[in-house]
TrEMBL record:
Similarity comment: Belongs to the ABC transporter superfamily.
Keyword annotations: Amino-acid transport, ATP-binding, Cell membrane, Membrane, Nucleotide-binding, Translocase, Transport
Organism: Bailinhaonella thermotolerans
Domain ABC transporter: residue ranges: 2-241
Purpose of the protein: Part of the ABC transporter FtsEX involved in cellular division. Has ATPase activity.
Quaternary structure and interacting proteins, as annotated: Homodimer. Forms a membrane-associated complex with FtsX.
UniProt key word Cytoplasm: no
Taxonomic superkingdom: Bacteria
Sample GO molecular function, one term: ATP binding
CC annotations in GO: plasma membrane
Keyword Nucleotide-binding included in the entry's annotation: yes
GO biological process, one term: amino acid transport
PROSITE patterns: ABC_TRANSPORTER_1, ABC_TRANSPORTER_2
Name the record gives this protein: ATP-binding cassette domain-containing protein
Length: 322
C-alpha cells in the first residue's frame, strides 16, 4: 500500500545542508497499522509528510496504492491526496467552525453537494462517537474529543490510507488508550492502512502490527512485530522487554504466543535442572502474549533442556555462545 524507496530529503540551512532522510526504504502492507518509532529529530515527521508529498523528497520514490506520488502533476496530486487522510498532534481544527463545520471542510473543498455533505458529516461523527457534539466549537471540547474530530475530518474523503503525526502525544494516558483503540477499530472496520509516527513505545505495543525504528534519518530496523521479537539482537525487542544485563552462560528465552505455558516448571520436571530466574518481561501485543525471560540453567540436563525449548518453537539465546 505504501512503498518508499531510496527516500532522501535535504534541507538548506544557513549555507549548509541538513540531511533529514538518508536513503529510507519502507514498505507498509495494505490493512496494517505500521508505527515509526524514534526520538525527536530522527526524521519521522519528514518521512510522514513525504508520503503525501507535503514535503517533496530530494531523491527517491513514493508509491501509495499503486501510484507513484513523486511523478504526479499538481492536479493529479490533489486528487491522490483525497485517498490519504492525516491527523495531527495538535488537532489543527478551525476555531471559528463548529465540530460539524470542521469535518465538512474537506468535503466543501472537494465540491461535495450540501445534502450529501451533511449526511457524510453525521455518519463520520457517529463513527467517532461524537454525534452529540456537532454544534459545539473546538474550545468547548476536551483534547480527546478534539482528536476524534480530527480523525473524522481525515476520513471525510473515504481514504484508504491514514497518516498519524504524533496524534496522541498531547493526550493523557487514558485518553491516549481511547484514541488508539479508535484507530485500531477504524483500521479493522474500514480496512484502513495506518502509518503512525511516535516516540512512545507504548503506542507501538498497543496498536501496531509492524514497526520501524528511525535514527538520524535512517531506518535501523523494520518488520512485523512478532518477527522482530523473535530476531536475536533486535533493538525493538530490547526496548519492549527490558532485562537485566546478561552474564556469560545466561539463557534468554523469547516467547511469541507461548508466554502462558508452564515452560520453566516443565524444564525442572523433565530434565532435572535448576532454573534461576534473573529477570523477565511480558506484554500483550496484538492480542498475543509475548515476552522474554532471562535465566541461569544448572544441572546435567541443561543441553537437553535448551534443545527442548528450541523444539517448542521458542527463541533461545545463550550469552557468549558461538
Amino acid at each position: 500500500m505504501i512503498r518508499l524507496s531510496g527516500l532522501r530529503k535535504v534541507y538548506g540551512s544557513r549555507g549548509r545542508e541538513v540531511v533529514a532522510l538518508d536513503g529510507v526504504d519502507l514498505h507498509v502492507r495494505e490493512g496494517e497499522v505500521f508505527g515509526v518509532l524514534g526520538r525527536s529529530g530522527a526524521g519521522k515527521s519528514t518521512l510522514l509528510r513525504c508520503v503525501n508529498l507535503l514535503e517533496r523528497p530530494t531523491a527517491g520514490t513514493v508509491h501509495v496504492d499503486g501510484r507513484e506520488m513523486t511523478s504526479l502533476s499538481s492536479g493529479e496530486l490533489r486528487l491522490a491526496r483525497q485517498g490519504i487522510g492525516m491527523i495531527h498532534q495538535h488537532f489543527a481544527l478551525l476555531s471559528s467552525r463548529t465540530v460539524a463545520g470542521n469535518v465538512a471542510f474537506p468535503l466543501e473543498v472537494m465540491g461535495v453537494p450540501a445534502a450529501e455533505r451533511d449526511r457524510r458529516v453525521a455518519e463520520l461523527l457517529d463513527l467517532v462517537e461524537l454525534g452529540d457534539k456537532a454544534g459545539a466549537y473546538p474550545a468547548q471540547l476536551s483534547g480527546g474529543q478534539k482528536q476524534r474530530v480530527g480523525i473524522a475530518r481525515a476520513l471525510a474523503g473515504r481514504p484508504k490510507v491514514l497518516l498519524s503525526d504524533e496524534a496522541t502525544s498531547a493526550l493523557d494516558p487514558q485518553t491516549t488508550a481511547s484514541i488508539l483503540g479508535l484507530l485500531r477499530r477504524l483500521n479493522r472496520e474500514l480496512g484502513l492502512t495506518v502509518l503512525l509516527i511516535t516516540h512512545e513505545m507504548n503506542v507501538v505495543k498497543s496498536v501496531c502490527d509492524s514497526a520501524a525504528i528511525m535514527r538520524e534519518g535512517r531506518i535501523v530496523e523494520s518488520g512485523e512485530l512478532p518477527a522482530l521479537i523473535a530476531t536475536p539482537g533486535s533493538e525493538l525487542t530490547r526496548e519492549l522487554f527490558p532485562l537485566p544485563e546478561a552474564a556469560p552462560g545466561m539463557v534468554t528465552i523469547t516467547f511469541v504466543g507461548q508466554a502462558d505455558e508452564p515452560v520453566v516448571s516443565e524444564l525442572v520436571r523433565k530434565f532435572d535442572v535448576d532454573v534461576n530466574i534473573i529477570g523477565g518481561s511480558l506484554e500483550t501485543i496484538g492480542g498475543r502474549p509475548m515476552g522474554r525471560l532471562r535465566v541461569e540453567l544448572t544441572g546435567g540436563g541443561s543441553a537437553d533442556a535448551l534443545a527442548y525449548l528450541r523444539d517448542r518453537g521458542l527463541l533461545v539465546d545463550v550469552e557468549g555462545a558461538a
